[in-house]
UniProtKB/TrEMBL annotation:
Parts of the chain that traverse the membrane: 21-42, 62-82, 103-123, 143-161, 193-212, 232-254
A Pfam family annotated for this UniProt entry: DUF1206
Key words of the record: Membrane, Transmembrane, Transmembrane helix
Protein name: DUF1206 domain-containing protein
Residue intervals of the DUF1206 domain: 25-86, 108-167, 191-255
Entry keyword Cell inner membrane: no
Native source organism of the sequence: Sphingomonas hankyongi
Length: 275
């Protein structure tokens, strides 16, 4: 046996441990962002999306936290992409596993993009990206843009219904350590996912209406979805988002996270697919 093999394996395990720790930081960062969005809506009446929450943190001492969150979101995004490519969380060639892997890849890209926005905020003081209306306007200017927006609205509607499905069946508990599968975690997740379902369906409605009207004025993301509500309904949805944030923190502590394949195994799989 190569005398350096144990040391090499120890170094590899240390790298994997750091990566998985950063994934947990990603869950923690997601929780903090959702709690911040809810706090701003409940305490100040200010509505923000995830980008707005990142920008809110990008001032003063919050910048240090933002740096940690950016690293965590990047690791979380890469982990999701690893699941999409290699099935580390959803193995198997069946249709259900492939659908989950496709969703994992999409989620991974979203969180990598959020990490990129966080880095932009750290370096430049702002995310420097188009808001929801500007994005919708750009799409509408393209040939068939209204159709594209309609498809986006349909995808978001399906995603919203899936959030309600998770809330009803409590599938979010499957990947938690048994120590966290308590009534508190169950109800935090159920209410939190239901609140996310409301937000997703509202965004789908706003984008769908923009597609039908051919104008971007009413298109929006989470910020505009929260603006859609007022009074007790807004408070209920914001509280639900805060509870989702709290559940994300539980995930950061107790979620079972499968390690991505070693670099050599990844290389071999890529080579097999290319040959």
């Amino acid at each position: 046996m190569n005398p350096s093999a144990p040391l090499d394996r120890a170094a590899e395990l240390a790298r994997e441990s750091r990566f998985l720790t950063l994934c947990r930081v990603g869950f923690l960062g997601r929780g903090i962002l959702y709690i911040l969005i809810a706090w701003l809506a409940l305490q100040t009446g200010r509505t923000e999306d995830l980008t707005g929450a990142l920008e809110y943190l990008g001032h003063g001492s919050g910048r240090i936290l933002l740096i940690v969150i950016a690293a965590g979101l990047a690791a979380y995004g890469l982990w999701r992409l690893a699941d999409a490519a290699f099935g580390i969380e959803n193995p198997g060639p069946d249709g259900k596993a492939l659908r989950k892997r496709s969703a994992a890849g999409f989620i991974g890209l979203i969180y990598l993009y959020l990490s990129y926005k966080a880095v932009r905020i750290i370096l430049a003081g702002h995310a420097g990206t188009m808001n929801a209306q500007e994005q919708a306007d750009t799409v509408l200017d393209l040939p068939g843009g209204a159709v594209v927006l309609g498809i986006a609205a349909a995808v978001l509607a399906v995603a919203g219904l899936n959030q309600f499905r998770k809330a009803g069946k409590c599938t979010f508990l499957y990947n938690l350590d048994y120590r966290a599968q308590a009534p508190l975690a169950k109800w935090l997740g159920r209410i939190g996912y239901a609140a996310r379902g409301v937000i997703f369906l509202t965004i789908a409605y706003l984008i769908g209406k923009a597609a039908l009207d051919g104008t971007s004025n009413e298109a929006g993301g989470m910020e505009q979805a929260l603006d859609f509500f007022s009074g007790p309904v807004l408070w209920a949805v914001a509280l639900g988002l805060a509870l989702f944030g709290a559940f994300s923190i539980i995930e950061a502590l107790f979620r079972r996270i499968h390690e991505p394949p070693p670099p050599e195994e990844i290389k071999q799989k890529v080579e097999r697919k290319l040959t």
